[in-house]
Design goal:
Helix 3 crosses helix 4. It is globular and about 80 Å long. It is built from 18 helices and twelve strands. A seven-stranded mixed β-sheet has the order 6-5-4-7-8-12-9, sandwiched between helices. A three-stranded antiparallel β-sheet has the order 1-3-2. With 371 residues, the protein is of the alpha/beta class. The two termini are 44 Å apart.
Length: 371
């Protein structure tokens, strides 16, 4: 294998001009450090790695000054750059998915002759998934006291708490010293007055020293991270204990435990196709897992909250605060809502799920990881 690459060969492989490479050399961004047998300057393997990072950040829209700061950070290795790039690309994908969903909603409204408001028009150019669904959170995503009690119990006597993917602040303890982390400006903007200070950062790259907190917590957020395993390891790095509310996809046929995904939204399984297993997440932080039943009258409008109140899933305001619907896309959403509405009207839903009426809580896969 070659231990150096000429400027021309690198330009060919990277699909950039030789002039671009000379410019990067001239400003000290990427300088060839090797020599050919004939004495010409060439790129070493380390130079290629740095160039890869530079070009990737450039193609994501970063300016040269920003790129220089990113690749020049001595505390960030190649793996960290890859995790960051992966997160940025997933964020771009979520942004595109959210924009497509908003476009489809506007097209449908226009086809029906309904006037589209300026707010709806601007929604299309909104940023991330949470930036689209986040505006609906205050209406339906509130702290459920029974789930909160489980989380408080898991926090134990910790005094300093880091809340990762904190959103609007649900489930943050009010009797501890809390620091929140949330990448979405929309979500940060909806945090109530007097809530814990919130840092704009991603789970995969927490800006804190090792062991800075007694405990790091994450509530119903891991599935939104670009690299869940990296985020969990970061939580373990910065805190002595970790508490994570997530869900279990390890059990065979797990998607059948909830009637909504079983009978109306099979696409849900595809949304979580790349999500790590519960066992892998537990191993990453050395955690044990405990089930968290969802109360029939759950105050937190998470995806499974209305398992005994199916009519709620027909309401637009309820669905908009659930990321699942944006991820599966408008076509799947319309089909699922239409089928559910038909089955509720005909009595078929009640026939299939009549046994739920006597349950006060249901195990739908919600799990509390504690390390």
């Amino acid at each position: 294998m070659d231990d150096h690459w000429t400027v021309g060969r690198v330009a060919e492989l990277a699909d950039v001009s030789v002039r671009t490479l000379h410019h990067y050399d001239g400003i000290g961004l990427v300088r060839p450090s090797a020599r050919t047998a004939a004495g010409y300057r060439a790129y070493s393997a380390g130079d290629i790695e740095r160039l890869r990072e530079v070009l990737a950040y450039r193609r994501l829209g970063f300016g040269l000054r920003e790129v220089a700061e990113l690749v020049g950070d001595p505390a960030t290795d190649a793996a960290a750059h890859l995790r960051r790039l992966r997160g940025l690309l997933l964020e771009r994908r979520d942004r595109a998915d959210a924009m497509l969903a908003a476009i489809d909603r506007e097209l449908e409204a226009r086809a029906k002759g309904r006037k589209v408001t300026p707010e709806e028009q601007l929604e299309m150019v909104g940023a991330r998934l949470y930036d689209v669904i986040g505006g609906a959170y205050p209406a339906t995503r509130r702290t459920d006291p029974r789930i909160a009690a489980r989380i408080r119990g898991a926090l134990g006597d910790a005094r300093t708490v880091l809340n990762v993917g904190a959103g609007t602040g649900s489930y943050e303890p009010t009797d501890r010293e809390v620091t929140a982390v949330e990448p979405s400006a929309v979500m940060r903007g909806q945090r109530p007055a007097g809530s814990a200070p919130c840092v704009a950062a991603a789970a995969e790259s927490l800006p804190f020293e090792d062991g800075s907190f007694d405990v790091a917590m994450a509530v119903s957020t891991v599935h939104h991270w670009g690299d869940p395993m990296a985020g969990l390891r970061e939580m373990r790095r910065v805190a002595r204990h970790v508490v994570v509310l997530t869900f279990d996809t390890d059990e065979p046929g797990w998607q059948d435990r909830f009637w909504l995904t079983r009978d109306y939204l099979p696409e849900f399984a595809g949304v979580l196709a790349q999500f790590p297993s519960l066992a892998a997440m537990a191993d990453a932080i050395g955690a044990r897992a405990e089930p968290v039943p969802v109360p029939w009258d759950c105050a937190d409008g998470l995806f499974e909250a209305y398992w005994r109140r199916p009519e709620a899933y027909l309401e637009e305001r309820v669905r908009r605060a659930m990321s699942v619907w944006t991820r599966v896309g408008p076509q799947a959403e319309r089909r699922a809502v239409r089928s559910l509405g038909d089955d509720l009207a005909s009595g078929r839903w009640a026939e299939r799920n009549g046994d739920l009426a006597d349950l006060d809580a249901a195990d739908l896969g919600l799990r509390l990881l504690m390390a």
